[in-house]
Amino acid sequence: MTAAALRALHVPGDPLILPNAWDADSARLVAEANFPVVATSSVAVAASLGYPDGEVAPVQEMFAAAARIARAVPVPVTVDAEGGYGLPGPEFADRLLATGAVGCNYEDTDHAGGGLRPVDEQAARLAAIREAAGADLVLNARIDVFLTAADARAVLPEAIERARAYLDAGADCVYPILLRDRDVLAEFVQAVRPAAVNANGPDFAALAELGVARISLGAGLWRDARGWLAEHLKSLR
């Protein structure tokens, strides 16, 4: 499946729902449930490989996991690629596309140095990926300012600045992760309109009303499955 097919599913007000998978088997379940796209969750994939989240897992193992998922399903795959694993844009694009994936999340957290990358630096990284990948990759630019913010409205101007810079650099979609405040999210969506915005579930109808184009469940399904298994093991014991 092509990046064009994935890109076309990003419709403001009629969002693409992404139940995030973590291995080939969970990806097959997503596809068999007739979801048109499989997305991955970095924390869940890393955990399945025996590592914590945050670019601790070796990049070759993360990309190998992505390749197994892409081979297992007949639908487009978009990969949570964290902050790019320190790879230059052309190498990142080549290695990601080689897995068979046609999209990715690309976040502005600097896992090597801590904190967020400066907006100009992150925009340049996105532009390099876009130049290398052309139209063959759907870029979902994650904006991490809300992850640690006590007041979502206070960091909204920075989030909008980052979103506009990332879109200008070639991102197809922007993702203000963990922006839970409905009013602030509505302002964000309006500020970047008509660009596609990714939000977090699970209130699909409310998010659709705000005009988001993509809804991620993140690590939710993995946590639910893991929680059920942990309790079931206790009962067996």
Automatic annotation (TrEMBL):
- List the InterPro entries hit by this protein, alphabetically: ICL/PEPM, Pyrv/PenolPyrv_kinase-like_dom, Pyrv_kinase-like_dom_sf
Q: Which CDD domains match?
A: ICL_PEPM (cd00377)
Family matches, as Gene3D superfamilies: Phosphoenolpyruvate-binding domains
Region forming the signal peptide: none
Q: Which PANTHER family match?
A: CARBOXYPHOSPHONOENOLPYRUVATE PHOSPHONOMUTASE-LIKE PROTEIN (AFU_ORTHOLOGUE AFUA_5G07230) (PTHR42905:SF16), PHOSPHOENOLPYRUVATE CARBOXYLASE (PTHR42905)
Which protein, by its recorded name, is this? 2-methylisocitrate lyase-like PEP mutase family enzyme
